[in-house]
From TrEMBL:
Assigned protein family: Belongs to the DprA/Smf family.
Signal sequence range: none
Protein name: DNA-processing protein DprA
InterPro entries associated with the record: DprA, DrpA_SLOG
Source species of the chain: Actinoallomurus spadix
Length: 384
């Protein structure tokens, strides 16, 4: 548990700065959260980092942060969060997911969370399932089934709570009594979209609602895009179920790729605009893997020996159960007409006695029958 003063400082930073600001991340890394606030509050000109933005950009950001300071009470923010049944999870807390540290200077300053589940523990085995808001019935079915099957295997599904694929994945998990995490681009108490009030209530009850923004914060387009990096960082891999050429899901996939997480794409009909972005990723990104079911997803993100997908095989035919020599004899019989025993033996590469014994077994099993030329295949043999 971090000191109360640092918790207050981080709560305040989530209010005055936009999520994922690398300039503030560098300042926190150098000064700590409390020290960063002291630098922001001071009247001294902000220093610049050679690896960071230029002097004008730094001055503009500091001015914006300072403008938001008056009237912002971090103790009141925490009290409001507590009244809503939430909490602030900070770096250094036992519940903090350490994989978020991979974001470096763009790591969240803190996370506002609502729900009884432990965020760190819940995301140890987690997969992001994302996709188009304008999803087709195909995409919705795939996302819901994948969410349910991941939940059945003990995996957490992380998504953004949006229309379409996100909502289908969340609902699939809830139907299977699993754990799902919705990462918001607004305060966790802001129902966006409004028609998802019931869904978010269920997620808060059985899973987690998470945001980098304090309660009451409104969503913006920029916040949605920045939010996607958190979805990617929380999980071992991202599955894009459906995505048009311009889609926020592709942004999440890009963050996952940059973080060296698994990037997986579900293919769709080549005639579907809703899958056009998926096909671009499959064609142009060497890191992307095509997946068609949950087993293939877990083959990439799961633990060796525990979650590997079974080997893909076609249907087992009766001829597959034949021993190798008998199988060779069967293959030596021409598809049309018939052949004598000697010719069959030569073609199969066996002696005459072996060929006779194999032909007897094949006849008894219904694969072959005698004919004027010797032996021929039965028309409706079990060899299929």
């Amino acid at each position: 548990m971090i000191p109360a003063e640092e918790r207050l400082a981080r709560a305040l930073l989530t209010r005055i700065a936009e999520p994922g600001d690398e300039l503030l991340g560098r300042l926190i890394a150098r000064e700590g959260a409390i020290g960063a606030l002291e630098v922001i509050r001071s009247d001294a000109p902000p220093g610049t980092d050679p690896a960071g933005p230029g002097e004008k950009t730094v001055a503009r950001r500091f001015a914006a942060w300072r403008a938001r300071l008056p009237g912002t009470d971090p103790e009141r923010l925490l009290a409001e969060c507590d009244a809503l049944g939430g909490r602030l999870v900070c770096p250094g807390d036992a519940e903090w997911p350490s994989q978020l540290d991979d974001l470096g200077y763009r790591r969240p300053y803190a996370l506002w969370a609502r729900g009884d589940q432990d965020l760190r523990f819940g995301c140890l085995r987690s997969v992001a399932v994302v996709g188009s808001r304008s999803a087709t019935s195909y995409g919705i079915n795939v996302a819901a089934e994948m969410g349910a099957e991941l939940a059945d295997r003990g995996w957490t599904v992380v998504s953004g709570g949006a229309f379409g694929i996100d909502a289908a994945a969340h609902r699939g998990v809830l139907a299977a009594d699993g754990l799902t995490v919705a990462v918001f681009a607004c305060g966790f108490d802001v129902t966006y979209p409004s028609s998802h009030a019931g869904l978010f209530s269920e997620i808060a009850r059985y899973g987690l609602l998470v945001s980098e923004l304090p309660p009451g914060a409104s969503p913006t387009r920029g916040r949605f895009l920045v939010r996607n990096r958190t979805i990617a960082a929380l999980t071992r891999g991202t599955v894009v179920v459906e995505a048009a050429r311009r889609s926020g899901a592709i942004s999440t996939a890009r963050h996952a790729r940059d973080l060296r997480r698994a990037v997986m794409v579900v293919p769709g009909p080549v005639t579907s605009a809703a899958s056009a972005g998926c096909h671009v990723l499959l064609r142009e990104w060497s890191e992307v893997v095509c997946v068609t079911d949950t087993a293939e997803v877990l083959d990439l993100v799961g633990l060796i020996g525990d979650d590997l997908a079974p080997e893909r095989r076609g249907p087992v035919l009766d001829r597959d159960r034949l021993d190798p020599v008998t199988g060779d004899v069967l293959e030596a019989i021409p598809a049309r007409g018939g052949a004598g025993t000697a010719r069959i033996a030569v073609t199969a590469g066996v002696d005459l006695d072996t060929a006779l014994a194999a032909l007897g077994s094949l006849s008894a099993a219904g694969f072959v029958e005698r004919c004027a030329k010797g032996w021929k295949l039965r028309r409706h043999s079990p060899g299929g």
